[in-house]
């Protein structure tokens, strides 16, 4: 195998596939990046067996030559060394050639590295994906769906299924739900290409996979094709394939747990409220928990306060845009509230309370595709 | 740069009761006076060691922590009594009451010793105050003590150790080179067997060597504690006498040495259950919850492990503590014979600051209590926070443990 390649394109592709390479792995060859050259160009693959990323560098793009293939072939190179070597090369063109016994020479300008590679035949094959269920979505929408939900997955392994995001496909709509059982994030998105009539199914994607996916996707509106099989999901973007294992098991039915009525509603300016919560939590996060109190006073005034023994207390009043229903006093985690407000990212939000010991929800009046739910904290 | 606040030199007393348990027994039963007396754990169990003994017994070479059989060999007439902790607690409380007659700045350290800051109480010369305290304790309670007088806690503690029984010793800063420095480091308060061994390892034998030791070397050897020890060897100790320190609970724990090495899971779990009961009762006694449960396992070969896990929500009920302790135990017990088991509640939270993060899948259980809680809330708003509480707070005797380390009772309520 031998090829010449533009260094910038190589660095970019290496850093993408590197996100899937695990530092520790039970399959030794997975510490490497697989390089394949074909008539079309160069493919790089990284995998930790849960996530696999395959990046493609075409021979030419917009009449510019990016890769010159001299001899086709495959090799696996140690990911960390290869990526550091490539980054530090002096010139803008890199030559990679494999000599006998997988010995690989990397040249750029006057610099020459020799890295001992591994047999590409030993590298596990990527999952075979048949076009079972496939649909497309613009990249920026997909990234939004992920960002507005993935932060709410559980980080604890006590209920492994909750470490994933639950995606339900129904009536040309995707509903993504994540919960760590203390808060829940829900986001709906309309699918570009329609599913077959009456087709509905659901999957659970590991939160970690989705977080990595957002890092390798560009910010644009290009469509991403999403293909789902029984135990794998594949995201196909331009020059990029992203595979993830799906979580097995039944995701709890959360639809019945989201309250539909409310006793108290209040509308607030998001930015003002977020800043007040942030200030109140300054002291609260020093304590053992990050809990703040929220109370509706007279004249649509909201009082946000926190008290941490030995440190101090903070009280702040925020004017609500509107209050309806009963008065309420409730305590909750400042972190969950800030996460939710940041996820909704709207000018105004409305909070729907159903009681001081029951879940409450946050919604934006201008965007009904997103909902955030928080469980309060009980004080004694 | 190190300096002391020059505003005013403090006058600190360290009051140390002489062979406290034995003295209490003698005060309680005067016919024991002048006889070799020892307090020892139950000889049938592994706890058959001397807890403390009278000065008459010490003359025969009987020492604290000596096995009972060895003590009997040295002193065949030795009178051995089992400890009566309830009795010692009552006497201890009386002692601290007496000390508080002189100043509010009394800090109990354990059942039989404490610090006093009498700087503000300057009606008499400190030595006469000390003699007065000593005489009163002897006359009113029939208990001997030694008192150290110094400008800080460390020196006061060292001073009280210098003359026993019934000593009053003044240790001034200027006496340090003459009196303190020639002593071996092992005599220093805060310098245990391991620290002494380490210090000896780098050629530090006397307190003088420590006072003049190299900071960097000490820090490498003992961390920040090394620097602290050096400061003390030079007579510096910035710690204040803090009457409330006894009220700061960092943790609440109980452990028990098993009467024999146990391998049966069922038996070990039932011991955990009873430890959980005690820890739970003590947490309730102090109106606190724990957010981090730790267990200690000492194996037959004396290897000891402590493992803890942080909890999402604070707990204190016996069953909750047991479940958590069991969970940690099952995860870490290697199945070999166990000599000692312990449960400790760490990261304590006071009752009024306890919160519980509700769970999406179980919140209904808490929500059921909502109407009740609303009523309580309304009452509190009208009449103040303490007007109503859930459950009745009763003095729980159950939680008291029979060890001198349990200082719960020293709190002022």
UniProtKB/TrEMBL annotation, chain A:
Residues 1-127 form the DNA polymerase III beta sliding clamp N-terminal domain. Confers DNA tethering and processivity to DNA polymerases and other proteins. Acts as a clamp, forming a ring around DNA (a reaction catalyzed by the clamp-loading complex) which diffuses in an ATP-independent manner freely and bidirectionally along dsDNA. Initially characterized for its ability to contact the catalytic subunit of DNA polymerase III (Pol III), a complex, multichain enzyme responsible for most of the replicative synthesis in bacteria; Pol III exhibits 3'-5' exonuclease proofreading activity. This is Beta sliding clamp. The keyword Secreted does not apply. It comes from the Bacteria. It comes from Pallidibacillus pasinlerensis. The keyword DNA-binding applies. Forms a ring-shaped head-to-tail homodimer around DNA. Residues 256-378 form the DNA polymerase III beta sliding clamp C-terminal domain. Belongs to the beta sliding clamp family. Residues 137-253 form the DNA polymerase III beta sliding clamp central domain. Keywords: Cytoplasm, DNA replication, DNA-binding, DNA-directed DNA polymerase, Nucleotidyltransferase, Transferase. One of its GO terms (molecular function) is DNA-directed DNA polymerase activity. NCBIfam families: dnan (TIGR00663). It is found in: Cytoplasm.
TrEMBL record, chain B:
The active site is at residue 113. Keywords: Cytoplasm, DNA damage, DNA repair, DNA replication, DNA-binding, DNA-directed DNA polymerase, Magnesium, Metal-binding, Mutator protein, Nucleotidyltransferase, Transferase. One of its GO terms (molecular function) is DNA-directed DNA polymerase activity. The record marks 21 as: Substrate discrimination. The keyword DNA-binding applies. The keyword DNA-binding applies. Its EC number is 2.7.7.7. Mg(2+) binds at residues 16, 112. CDD domains: PolY_Pol_IV_kappa. Poorly processive, error-prone DNA polymerase involved in untargeted mutagenesis. Copies undamaged DNA at stalled replication forks, which arise in vivo from mismatched or misaligned primer ends. These misaligned primers can be extended by PolIV. Exhibits no 3'-5' exonuclease (proofreading) activity. May be involved in translesional synthesis, in conjunction with the beta clamp from PolIII. This is DNA polymerase IV. It comes from Pallidibacillus pasinlerensis. The lineage of its organism: Bacteria, Bacillati, Bacillota, Bacilli, Bacillales.
